[in-house]
Amino acid sequence: MDMRKSRSESGASPLDGGSGRHHDWDSKRRRKMAEISQALSVTPVDVATLRRMAISEGGLLSDEIRRKVWPKLLNVQMDNLPEKPGEELRVNNKDYNQVLLDVRRSLRRFPPGMPDEQREGLQEELIDIILHVLQRNPQLHYYQGYHDIVVTFLLVVGERLATILVEKLSTHHLRDFMDPTMDNTKHILNYLMPIIDRVNPEVHDFMQQAEVGTIFALSWLITWFGHVLSDFRHVVRLYDFFLACHPLMPIYFAAVIVLYREEEVLECECDMASVHHLLSQIPQDLPYELLISRAGDLFVQFPPSELAREAAAQQEERTAASTFKDFELASTQQRPDTVLRRRRKEQVVAGREPGAVPKVAAGVVAVVRPRARRFVRLAVMGLTVALGAAALAVVNTALEWAPKLDLQLFP
């Protein structure tokens, strides 16, 4: 897949492009809001539609909508919110001192210009949320970076709702990061290079030769990019996406960031220090909607079960990824061979030579593996605004995995 693309072209906002584009986006936004409202109003709530809305262009649009939809994505009931904890929560708490240090260092995670008194109040609430979740779940272990995720929920939904959402998230999506050791976290990071290898062997081999490893992506993964992105709008857009998907989706998103920066990587000095420095400095002007779409494409094409053998530093059963059925998109008309046959027919109808190599359109994934001395053409399933079958596969898999009450995902 050629991830190289003009940043001015691929990074355009839905609101860019003049009054015509602005009008189109306003129309799409109104339709999306109506669909979300309808999905929330039925009994039972139409979670499949909510997941599609969270994945599609623009995500959930506003924090007001997120306050209604995020609990549904996590299957959290809002009729019994916890009361504000008392002072005893902090007394003799083994995690309190580390949490306090991390929260005090989190000034940049709060909106610029927020009054000190308001920010300090939110920081106290942040400490209470973290300690409450850890106290109720002694099997969970605090890690540095956890507060970057918690503060995002606090700023969007408020303390009481954030407490139960974070607790559910911590026992599901984030569970592997909260083990006593980093073994499972390192296992998840081990998926990064096989994904890159499937798409761009040249970048993969360059990174292997540089011996850069995957540690540059650690903070991306364990904070859901909250620690490394300066614009809060981009952070919550990614949270919409991740909450609607498989818990390994953040590592696929990390892979598409690396692939998008192909030219920068290959032009870098091929040594560990140089490549690590380049990759650890994540650009702030990324084309987020494009990369979200491509992360979905790669998850569809290379599901975790296909990569597990290469990534396995330990038994699959110990990670969140093993609790899922992978996408069942290989069925019906979305099977790769079917997609390729249909595309070939379209080329003939369009008057092209059957053997000609088609031009790759925006949002399309095509993989060439020169080392195999042959072209391998893979199915294309773009996550578009209209949401095709690939997006439905994302939703269906997310629904199969979706946190359920009393669901035990880990031993």
UniProtKB/TrEMBL annotation:
Cellular localisation: Membrane
SUPFAM superfamilies (UniProt xref): Ypt/Rab-GAP domain of gyp1p
Membrane-spanning ranges: 212-229, 241-260, 378-399
Pfam families: RabGAP-TBC
Start and end residues of each Rab-GAP TBC domain: 60-246
Region (Disordered): 1-30
Taxonomy, superkingdom: Eukaryota
Record carries keyword Membrane: yes
UniProt keyword terms in alphabetical order: GTPase activation, Membrane, Transmembrane, Transmembrane helix
A single cellular component GO annotation: endoplasmic reticulum membrane
InterPro entries noted in UniProt: Rab-GAP-TBC_dom (IPR000195), Rab-GAP_TBC_sf (IPR035969), TBC20/Gyp8-like (IPR045913)
Organism name: Scleropages formosus
Membrane topology: Multi-pass membrane protein
PROSITE patterns documented for this protein: TBC_RABGAP
One MF term in the entry's GO annotations: GTPase activator activity
Keyword Transmembrane helix among record annotations: yes
One BP term from GO: vesicle organization
Official protein name in the record: TBC1 domain family member 20
